[in-house]
Amino acid sequence: MAKSSTTSLAVAGTGAVVTGIGRLIGGRVGAWISGFGLAHIVLGLLDMTRPTVRRNS
Question: Is 57 exposed, middle or buried (0-12, 13-18, 19+ CB in 10 A)?
Fold first, then answer.
């Protein structure tokens, strides 16, 4: 199983790529795509600050 920090970085990195694509497209659709990417960046960064839950089973 992947660490949560690795998953968080993957989500934030994917958001950065999607944001860049949205900026390249431009217009209304590009703005929507950029917003979607920015939301993923924020969610990935917030996930990094969340404490992990460990189970010993």
Answer: exposed
